[in-house]
Structure formats: structure tokens, C-alpha cells
Amino acid sequence: MAEPISLNLELWNDSHDSTKFNSGVHAIDKYIKEQVAREVRNAMSGVVVLTVKGQRVVRGYYSLSAISLDFQDLPNKLTKTLPRYPQIPATLLGRLGVDVNFKKYLEEQEKEPPYLGEYLLNDAQVATVRAATSVGSALMLVDVLEPTSEDKANGARDPIGFYTKYGFQALHANPRRLYKSVRTIAQEQEIAKKKAKVPETSE
Looking at the predicted structure, is the pLDDT value of residue 161 above 70? Predict the structure, then answer.
């Protein structure tokens, strides 16, 4: 029986190898292959990569950056709870991708879906809440890239349903920009922590 594969999340640096990364979406692949070095060097984004422990090959990644949103673009249910500043600080999940070949390999090895996208999204949400305690951020935004016709021909699916499944909602001004309040994410994390606690046994 093969030993379980140990995965690791760490900040990208130029020692990571993304030359063979294939998410099925050209824009996602291009970012981690060609754009990430300039983004990180200029502190435009923080990029976290998924690797196998002890290896440098990128198997998945996500990027986070600071952004602001016009108050008038927010839905009424949010504006009722936020201060009426012209701009509202937010954290943008600009890219998230998983190598489809590695995902398939893991599924064959472990005989069950590896849920790598969920793993990355959860870590991105944890990072967003953690950063918001020192640099204000009221919302987490996702710009969901629509696969091109070529991407779709190669098997890529529109990921928008993936995000809405986990509570992200579309902004009316831009249906492909989704949001979730950092307050909601923090509450979800607290609930998850409580559920994860092992009940104490009586002696």
C-alpha cells in the first residue's frame, strides 16, 4: 500500500517549478508561469503554492491582494452593516488553480476526490481573516475567470458554481465578481473549530 502523500502550503518564491503546471485554463496557467515573479517582487500580490512536502513543483496555488470597492456597488444588505465610506477595503482572490494531472493522480492513488480546490480556498479564507485583524478588510472578493472556448474544448468548466457553493455571491454591477464578508468567514471558521473539538470524556 502506497504511503499517503503529504501536502504543503507555502509562499511562492523563485525556487518553485511551475513549468508543467496545467489547470486547464490558460489565464490561470500563464499567471503562475509568467506573471507571478513580477507580482511578488513588486508586492502586488501574495501567492501561496501547494506542493508535495519536500518537492518544489507547484501543484496548485492562489493569489491574494488588497483592493477597494465603491460603496455604491455593494448590495443593500451589506451597506446597512458597514460605515458609509466612499471606498470599502477588501481582499481580492485574484487567481486560484489546481494542476489537473496531479489531481487525477491523487484521486487514483487515494480512491477518492482530493478536494484540492477546497483546500486552497479554505486556506485563502483563513489568510484573509488573519490579515484583516491588522490591515482592515471588510470583504473577500473573487474575480472568477470564465474559461475561453479553447479552455472549454480542453475540458475546463466554469468555476463560478464552485465559489457560490461556499457562500460567495455575485455583485450586481459585475456578475463575475463575487463577494463574501470577512465577518461571515470568521464566523464560519469559529463554528468549524468548535465542531472539530473532541468532546471531553468523563473519568
Answer: yes
Q: E strands, 19-168, where?
A: 46-52, 60-70, 87-98, 139-143
* Whole-number Å distance between alpha carbons of 152 and 156: 5
Domain that holds residue 115: 7-195
CATH number of the domain enclosing 114:
3.40.630.30
Q: Is the pLDDT of residue 162 over 90?
A: yes
Q: What is the model's pTM?
A: 0.91
Q: How far is CA 8 from CA 55, 156, 163, in A?
A: 9, 25, 23
Residue that is written with C-alpha cell 454591477 in the block: 173
Asked if residues 5 and 52 have their Cβ atoms less than 8 Å apart, the reply is yes
| Number of domains present in the structure of the chain | 1
pLDDT digits 0-9 by tens, 45-74: 999 999 999 999 999 999 999 999 999 888
Own/partner pairs for 153-158, CB < 8 Å, 24+ apart? 154/24, 155/24, 155/100, 156/23, 156/24, 156/25
**Helix/strand number for the chain, H first, E second:** 8, 7
